[in-house]
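Dissemination and training. As part of the outreach component of the grant, students in the summer workshop were shown how a complex can be specified as a set of sequence lines and then modelled as a single object. The example used during the hands-on session is reproduced here so that future cohorts can follow it. Participants entered these lines:
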Amino acid sequence: MRRQDAGWWLLILPAFLLMTAFYIAPIAQVLAISFTEPSPGLGNYERLFTSESVQRVIVTTLRICTITTALALLLGYVLAYRIALANEAARRWWILAVLVPLWISVLVRAFAWVTLLRRQGLVNNALMETGLITEPLQLVWNEFGIIVGMVHYMVPYAVLPLLASMREIDPRLLAAARGLGAPRFTIFRRIFLPLSLPGLIAAGVLVFIFSLGFYITPAILGGGKTLMVAEWIGLQILDLIRWGLGTMMATVLVVAILATLAVFSRVVDLKRVFGTGA
Amino acid sequence: MDHAHRPGGWTVAAAWMVAIYLVLPISIVIPVSLTDQRFLSLPQEALSLRHYATVLGSEAWLGSIWQSFLIAVAATVIAVVAGTLCAIGCWRLSRRSTELVRAMMLLPIIIPSIVYAVGLYRYFAKIDLLDRFLGVAIAHGVTGIPYVVITVSTALAAFDPRLEQAARGMGASLSQTLRWVILPRIAPGIVSGAIFAFIHSWDELVIVLFIASRDVFTLPRRIWDGINENLDPAMAAVAVLLVVFTLGLLLLDLALRKRRDA
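and obtained this result:
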């Protein structure tokens, strides 16, 4: 029996070796550098408590991620609710509206938002022409722009786990409640919402951890003024050559994400979050 | 009497608003790419294809497109071979240790690419893979493995394990069982995984920003520079070409799934 299994273990080997040599090793090195450069010890981590700029980046990141998660969940819920209750033909179109943005390059999306929101952008021009405003609004290169772009990116990620859990709800429950005379909102609040709660939590965890390490959208739509953790790390490494600080923040980021997952793995099935089939 | 629960008018309206928010900003690049002006704007007097001509006549853009394509193909091969074999092994052995292996394969989706990019920058410097085709292909291939593992595992979940046992029982070797029994049944899952791994590499920017500089200058890298330096309508033309290409791949995936389900 054991010898028979050897062949199957061999199948796993290439991926395991590739992953260890070219994924795990570089990341382990990041963790190691944070303790050894510029001098061995916990000096870099001390900055978490003493450096105001480090704290500011963390607070900004947490604030933007929280707002993004809340908005993405709200918008995603509305959309998933509509999709879950649609008939088969309409559902396909609605799902396409979710999947297409999901797979469009994040750069293209950020570029589209810049086109729309910048000073001489389409939104400002349209508002000026209709006379609603006289001065262009500052819609991008600030926190507002970042959140608009990030929510846009995250809504599809919120919809998918929400939809998976909503489709498990037995429609006969809803029909029964309706037959017994419950108003639509009561059905939603007393039956639908509680039953979709696991999906809501899964979607929230997914969106939050994806937002934490976001690089491209905040970098383009924030215009270098509002720094989130990922962009700050890039800045430390590429421009300031402060490897110790950069890798310290990278380590904190990874620990924060894994801790969030660990906490919520008790509450939700992680396979629901990452959809690993079996 | 129909008691089916239907969403109310407000909910439907709100869902439409969300769908428009998702789709409209992306489609705005189409009219902008057709502008007759020299700056980012909607077409004023006529539609013009000059910005497409600029892109398709530029050696720099075409070079980047070709380079991105080659890297994506190489990365897809790495991800598909390693990911498929790994998913099959984990599925067949299916025990605690293989669950851990599968969790490890998902790490590239969970850990932000900035962390990986920073680590790889230092790691590749030591083994002389910075700014090399091979280096970028390996990095994209390794980070593409999770997509293949997920789609192939899903396909395997629908595969009857007794078929495999029957084949082995009748004396087929492992490689024969793989080639004639398992792989043909999960081929659609492998193709889906390949498409996702390809798109992943084709769109990837963060890793490239750190491990490539001059010799390897992929399409996303060129777009990134374009957005940060000069916002000219040629960028919109590139964006449209990219969207069309990605949509084509997605439709291909949908068509293949439909054929499999039929």
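The radius of gyration of chain A is 23 Å. Students were then asked to discuss how this feature might be tested experimentally.
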